[in-house]
What we know:
Distance between the termini: 59 Å
Strand content: 25-35%
Number of domains: 3
Shape: elongated
Helix content: 25-40%
Mean pLDDT: 90
CATH architecture of the largest domain: 4-Layer Sandwich
CATH superfamily of the largest domain: Metallo-dependent phosphatases
Number of strands: 17
Structural class: alpha/beta
Amino acid sequence: xxxxxxxxxxxxxxxxxxxxxxxxxxxxxxxxxxxxxxxxxxxxxxxxxxxxxxxxxxxxxxxxxxxxxxxxxxxxxxxxxxxxxxxxxxxxxxxxxxxxxxxxxxxxxxxxxxxxxxxxxxxxxxxxxxxxxxxxxxxxxxxxxxxxxxxxxxxxxxxxxxxxxxxxxxxxxxxxxxxxxxxxxxxxxxxxxxxxxxxxxxxxxxxxxxxxxxxxxxxxxxxxxxxxxxxxxxxxxxxxxxxxxxxxxxxxxxxxxxxxxxxxxxxxxxxxxxxxxxxxxxxxxxxxxxxxxxxxxxxxxxxxxxxxxxxxxxxxxxxxxxxxxxxxxxxxxxxxxxxxxxxxxxxxxxxxxxxxxxx
Length: 359
């Protein structure tokens, strides 16, 4: 028996305000298309069930078209059973008013369903987990038991109480399928079971750079299982840092960016961060960088975190100069150490030159 564990699709996500209107619409559509593509993957790979572990939608107020696509996709795949729990984003939302035969929803109290050679139990998102919840889990020792939840593990957060691993040891859970955390992760439940976050199908920010996004495919046979992570993201968030310390001009900056982004493509969402030190007469124009590389990626942003190095001795020697008087005043202050003098001089000169102060 093959089962998919997924979570946090966040269909109709509204986090893409930085994108142009057409790209914003395209990215939101892809979040919906991910669900359809995953179900088609399930059909091709003879998957029996899909565990939707919360936050399938970004908000309980779902767009009619999005809901229709999800409903029709489920209805058109009768050979796959969909098990659904609420998350903190789609809390109290019901995909169907009248459940079709291949759709099972778990409410706020623990319940379970015998499903062929496995037993699947679940509980929708709880902001406060009652002590009685742990007593209500009643899996049979002889079964292979899957449990669905949308909660943090061990450490609570601003949304909800955590699941306490010690309290679910001895509950005969073989696999605890979790949502809520957008990064795949996992651990042991005593000697018998494991818990796992599948992460999300696709990231919606630069928060988890370098992580894979997709779902887990479980292959269960004779009371044992193998688990494979299936990468599924179409758009990838990428960030590169470019040090300008040893770069003499903008053309050398271009070459360094080309080198570090050579593996990126048209479906990547890219952030280029310029850092290091540059002389005040070495201008780094991030608009030029944006114009040169923007068309190579789905989205690009350029951040300039470079710091200007001022020749303080040159300014101190100037005559009839406000900058010179300022530098002399700071450098003669015996209450400041050399590092503090440098920082104050740089900030002051940046202010006098109309630059952003880099304290």
